[in-house]
Design brief:
single chain; 329 residues; mainly alpha; two-stranded antiparallel ribbon; 15 helices; 2 strands; 63% helix; 4% strand
């Protein structure tokens, strides 16, 4: 065994390691320095560390390692200090995704990093200029709220609008909702009901697409945003704001919000159904021959009809009106 070890060492291909075993004394084990440890399979944490810390490091491994240490996982407890270390390595290498994650941490003051809105904005804008959609969204939010930008007034509004539109066009769900809100309210952009409806619908389509590919449950914040979009679209279709008035479409959107657990949507849905039924009954009543004859006279409406003006037998119409109002009474 000793002779074999000496020969192998002389060949330079193997490195001897001493392992103690109480029942056999000293045992020499040999392993190539280039061989991957059997305890570090592809995708494992130690494998990621080997890639992240290699002579030519993998930026993707640095990013993955950093985020897993920051968030924690089934295979490791959160280790924010190490996570920030590897995330910093990735962003210093120019990785836009790492810039976005660090910008979020700096904005919140999370994972052991101090809150720094200016640094957060700078990283977000760098990522945005690299074409990262989430970076665009973060940049738009920063300009919108004046977080670390050092800019105000007309220039702030112009840049906020610019990046918000870019982020929304790129498919950023929060940006699409914010742009729709802005058009509905006329804030930072022109007030336009049709544009508002368009972007609310795009946001809902984005949510559906993300829901199909998601691995975990929908976050509470995302669920609230989806509920809000459905409620807003339901209301706009009900009132005919920015779109054709449609009770059917309005009820569909409101029902979706209610199905997602929104109590306000459920209350609104119940009332809308009741109002829709009353409107339907009213339309049927307006087809009554006696009422049609009355309304054919200029200046006459159903609101100023008098009983004495009705033809004999038209009390059936009054009975219908009373019956339609029975629920309210």
């Amino acid at each position: 065994l000793a002779q074999a070890a000496a020969a192998a060492a002389a060949a330079g291909s193997l490195v001897p390691m001493i392992t103690l075993r109480p029942w056999v004394g000293v045992l020499l084990v040999f392993r190539s320095p280039l061989a991957l440890s059997p305890d570090c399979p592809d995708g494992s944490l130690c494998h990621l560390r080997e890639q992240a810390d290699a002579e030519e490091p993998s930026v993707e491994a640095q990013l993955a390692l950093g985020m897993e240490y920051i968030r924690g996982s089934y295979r490791t407890q959160p280790r924010p200090k190490e996570g920030v270390h590897w995330l910093t390595k990735a962003l210093e290498a120019g990785n836009a995704e790492a810039m976005v994650h660090m910008a979020k941490l700096l904005r919140q003051g999370a994972a052991g990093v101090g809150k720094d809105l200016k640094r957060s904005f700078e990283l977000a804008e760098r990522a945005a200029n690299k074409g990262h959609v989430d970076g665009m969204d973060l940049t738009a939010q920063a300009y919108w709220n004046g977080w670390g930008t050092g800019i105000s007034g007309k220039k702030q509004k112009k840049l906020a609008s610019k990046w918000l539109k870019k982020a929304a066009a790129g498919g950023a769900f929060p940006a699409q909702i914010q742009l729709a809100d802005a058009h509905r309210e006329g804030h930072f952009v022109e007030r336009d009901g049709e544009e508002a409806v368009k972007w609310y619908k795009k946001a809902l389509a984005t949510a559906d697409r993300l829901n199909e590919t998601r691995k975990g449950p929908i976050s509470k914040d995302a669920m609230k945003l989806i509920q809000k979009v459905c409620i807003t679209l339901g209301t706009m279709h009900w009132k005919g704001h920015g779109t054709e008035k449609s009770a059917t479409t309005a009820l569909e959107y409101m029902a979706r919000a209610a199905d997602l657990g929104s109590e306000p949507a459920q209350k609104a849905l119940d009332k809308m159904k009741k109002d829709a039924e009353m409107e339907k009954q009213k339309e049927e009543l307006l087809k009554d021959p006696a009422l049609e004859a009355w309304l054919s006279v200029p200046g006459k409406t159903e609101h100023n009809m008098k009983l004495k003006d009705l033809a004999p037998g038209s009390m059936e119409f009054i009975d219908k009106v009373l019956q339609s109002q029975k629920t309210d009474l």
